[in-house]
Amino acid sequence: MSDSKKDGTSSGMEGLPGAFGDSHPGFMEYKFQPVYMEEKKAAMMLPYNEKFVGDKTTGSIHGGIITLLMDTAGGMCVMATVKQMMPIATLDLRMDYLRPTKKGMDITAEVECYELTQYVAFVRGFAYQGEGDAKEAVAHMTAAFMLNTKGPNFGKASRFSEVDGGEK
Q1: In tens digits, what is the pLDDT along the chain, a chain of 168 residues?
Q2: Beta bridge partners of 143
Q3: Which residue, 30, 43, 57, 75, is the most exposed by fewest CB within 10 angstroms?
Q4: How many CB atoms lie within 10 A of CB 155?
């Protein structure tokens, strides 16, 4: 993953994948791994893990984990598009599962931000298994993310540790 352009100039996104990954539960709990982060595009990979299997007879990964991967990759793509870390919220996310995943194979989510407004980023992408000619789509996602929400900002320490929970 590179933060510099081919001509050697800066993309303005230095440190974003690391900052995102150092504080985002998806990276820490599920072992999501950033593959690349470019302007309007991002990819991340979920290593195969038997604890995420939804069908014990085939070894296929549960669809909820694939949805979480796609949502997290979409958020990282939004950060790449706006070129800064900011709190965002998933407004809408649609998943179409194309086929069951294959046992023992990693899953890579590749997403793009195809439209950006003042308040919303629109993202779409595919989850794949395999590489090159053997690359096979297992799911498709479209999503909308609200920008500058009041949620956690993954570029800074969480504000949730400052909340007293309303107890008096």
Answers
A1: 444 444 443 344 455 555 555 666 656 778 899 999 998 999 999 999 999 999 999 999 999 999 999 999 999 999 999 998 888 999 999 999 999 999 999 999 999 999 999 999 999 999 999 998 889 999 999 999 999 887 665 555 444 444 444 444
A2: 93, 123
A3: 57
A4: 16
Question: What Rg value do the Cα atoms of the chain yield, rounded?
Answer: 17
Adjacent-strand bridge partners of 33: 45
CA distance readout (Å), 106 to 48, 67, 101, 130, 134: 5, 15, 9, 8, 13
Element (H, E) at 72: helix 63-82
Give pTM, 2 decimals: 0.79
Cα–Cα distance between 28 and 86 in angstroms, integer? 19
SS3 of residue 60 by DSSP: strand
SS3 30: helix
Task: Identify the residue whose tokens are 């706006």.
Answer: 82
What residue ranges define each of the domains in the chain, with the CATH number in brackets? 16-150 (3.10.129.10)
Per-residue DSSP letter, 10: B
Whole-number Å distance between alpha carbons of 60 and 82: 35
Task: Centre a 10 Å sphere on the Cβ of residue 81 and count the other Cβ atoms it contains.
Answer: 24
